Amino acid sequence: MANLSLIVFLFFFLLILMHFIFIALSQGKVAMLSEERKQVLIDKRVELVESIKLHGLWSRMRSSRIVTKNDEDLIKLNSTHDQQVGELLDHLAKRTDRDYEAFCKCLKKDNQGHVVTEILRHEALSFNKEDVRQLSSYARKQLKSLYSRLRDIETGPEWAKEFALDLTTFYISLHLQKGETPTTKKKELHQDKIFAPHGNKKSGSVMSLIQSKPKRILVEGDAGMGKTTLCQNLAFRWAYEKCKWKCKFTTCVHSWTFVIYLTAANLQGYDDIHTAVHDHLLPGVSNEEVKKALDSSQSSTLFIIDSFDEGYMDNMLLRDLIQGRVYSNATLLLTSRPNYLQDLLKEFDSKLSTDGFSTEQKLLYIKKFANSKKENETKFFKLLNLIGEDEHTHGLDGDEEQKLQGQHMASLCSSPLYLAFICLLISSGGLQKITTRTELYKSITKFMVKRASRRMDNPMEKIEADIIRPLCRLSFEAYKRNEVNPSNVDLEKVGVNADEVLRSGFLTKKVKVSLFEDPVERFSFSHQTFLEYLAATHLAQTPGDLKDWLTTINARDWEYGHESLKSFFVDLLDGDFLLETSISIIERFTYSHDANKVDRFPASCLLMDFLRHLKAKTLILSPELEDEFKKKCFQIINHIVKHGISGYLDITITFATFSQNVEQQNISKNVATEAKDFIDYLRNLEECPNFNVKIECTDKSFANESSFQDAMQRVIQGSFSSNASDRLTSSSNIPLAYKADPNDFLRIALEQGFGNDIRAMEYHGTDGNRKVGLQSFMRAAMNKPLTTLKIYLYGKETDSDCCEMLAKLCSNPQLKILHISSAAASDHRMLIMQRLSQLSRLDALDELYFDIFTIDMASQEIKYYKQILEKNKMQKLDINGITDELRSVLRSTIPTMTALKELMLWNGPFDFWSSADDHLQLQSVTLNRVSLNSESFDNLCDIIAKWTNLRRLKIISIEIAGEQPNSVHFARILAAIAKCQIYELKMGRQIEDDFIDPLCEMLKSLEQLERLDLEYNNFSSDGKQKIKEFAERREKQLNVYL
């Protein structure tokens, strides 16, 4: 009887189960393999059995859950390979479309992609219009159902329900600003106008004021400014909000057929968009069905891709989407922290930024929070007053420190995330004195540790030791890999139990949107800034790991790529760790081994040894002095890093040899060694003249040492720096950055560090008010056995003292190469020219380059200029602006300047010498904004054809007067160029499609040509393609720029 009851029970159970399976199938929720694909497996069975190799597939198929270990063992019971493949195909026929697609991916990853392209997908699914309509409707329903997950704004652990904020209640439209460049005036933009037509559209070669809907929209903002919540809000509103009357006449979020919400990291590892959408959002719809649905609605599809900064690495698909190589007609809204897009910024029609909440928005949020949490508004009275008074703080009486703290708190509240944290802490009674973001995260961490301690019945010390410290290491390791979702394996590596961490609330398993069934269990923080805070905590306490990590990044990464982590990290530094980590940073970014370059020399080298000395003395600073010391120290470090990023060289110095036994000079000053004096020392270091210096040495004996770079390091940290730091003792001196004369400091530094045997010096002015820098350079160059001197000036650096020193330097009997480029004021320019024209030493030079603005030269200057040109030592001549008086000088000098190799003419007529008078052997010629008549144009063509040594020709812009059409002029100059043997040709702003055939004909003669620059001409797309195809047919490679 019992057996009969069991049988009846099982019978009814199976009936119920079959009923639910039938319902699921009828609703399309279990997408079994389509009949078309089953037929492919049948029709192509022989080809598949012969082609598929199983050995590398098993682990991939198990990982993708196509087969289990038990399935694999059963299939392998078949004795032959063909039988095993046949059994696998039978197994696949019983699976789903998703498994079929996953199987195709496994084949591709196992280098069997030809099976996919030639056999499995030989017969693609076909869709009629009704199929597409029903498919789109079903996909929309699935997406809208999925986006219900976006209702909560997660700011804390799942067990702390007060941390979950309802999007429909708490969301406040973001304060957006529109601006194309840093210098463009920002314009306010309401969030509802984000998709509306705005801006100018380029039509052909003319900018017309056509209002166009932006196709690529960028929203940038710092951490915690509400970018992710903006994305959630848009996707949620698309799914659950009907279009209101006020937005019916403009593009709004409700107008899209599809809204695809993914993170940048969701696209990593994918070759196409539809597969990513299928895996993460629509697993119940086949891959091909997703593709068909998106393709049919491309122009009405909105892709919302969040957190570019968290998933940009190794993400070619995302780059293709941004650049419009895929889904070019769809609209993309991308969010990112600043400074990550770099070369991709130009791809965006609309560039928006957010600075967070305005004062009104802060006040509104606090009131919403109080009402929603049923809190008495008086609990937030102090915060409300502080924010309300923020804009008027300067006029208030009271304690300056209190006002400053209030301003810091009000600034923190601009971030929607930080304001949420502050409100939650006030609500729970856990808000302490907070003025920085780091202090806020300390308070939140302390609050969560306290709550976890009660929840898990463990002392707070145990939570700190067993969970927080391991999480700090885990966060750092994840941060290095640019990962935001650590796995169970990652937790095990740092020795923490996943269940314990989940109970503590510092990690969660909750995923916002993606349905991707990752075979690896992963966890997440409520916000990336928690990961960054914990990673920074680890770095601040582990200098060894900091030093190792710094070797993996460059100065640009440090300055722009890690802003949030760096902010936490610097705030957390204290005590011995402050000195040790500062030393690690400055060692990493002061000296470039690849370029033999020292940034901010000599202050950077002095700071390095100064910090080492303080560390050796084990000084203990008060918290107030430590904060000031840290601030001043990192100001110098930041200047060092920024100078390194620029890659700009102020000074290049070439030594014949390095001397390590020089007589040392005392550059110190007796002062008391109280801690406050260290701040003065840092201030002196920051204020003294500093340069980006490249040091070279022609002494080959240095190659016998371990490396030239090691020798450089030894010299830089040698006698000069050691002399300074050795004098810093407990009873005597702190080395100052300079004594009475700051201009003499560079000379002292070079002579004490490297010696006097300098053979070449080069100076590049970088700022209009760097007279100190130029004088320092000249003093360092004085009385050195220089054979090469190059000085490039770009502003008001010169004065009468500099001119006199320059004359002395040029009188050096050993000097052979002299370059001077000056944009000095006219009075100083004349003085420079006078000194140079009177120097008999110019006749002994092997090479002279003298470049000045010629457009406003006075008569006396022109006379000096003529005397310099007549010496026939100029190898490079740059003439910018030609007056009638100057034209007469050029006519009598240039044709006979046989030493001249490079000529650049700007802004003036080309009519001051003829082909018959020409004796030049030019190798490079540039013509820009040059005017000619018919006679001078013919003369130019004759001269170009005559220059057999010409290797580089740039005709950027010429204007030809006369009645002949441009086609005649163009043919004439092409014929002249065809007789040259040039390697590089640039022609700009005058060529159209009609001239492509004669251009290509000319190029046939230029067999040695390596580079052709035709940018800024008026070619059509077809014209550009024609030129590219011609270049590809050439025997010798030709790089073309269009």
Automatic annotation (TrEMBL):
SUPFAM superfamilies: DEATH domain, P-loop containing nucleoside triphosphate hydrolases, RNI-like. GO terms for molecular function: ATP binding. Residues 215-339 form the NACHT domain. GO terms for cellular component: cytoplasm. Keywords: ATP-binding, Cytoplasm, Immunity, Innate immunity, Nucleotide-binding. Gene3D superfamilies: Death Domain, Fas, P-loop containing nucleotide triphosphate hydrolases, Ribonuclease Inhibitor. Residues 33-122 form the CARD domain. It is found in: Cytoplasm. GO terms for biological process: innate immune response; regulation of apoptotic process. This is NACHT domain-containing protein. It comes from Capitella teleta (Polychaete worm).
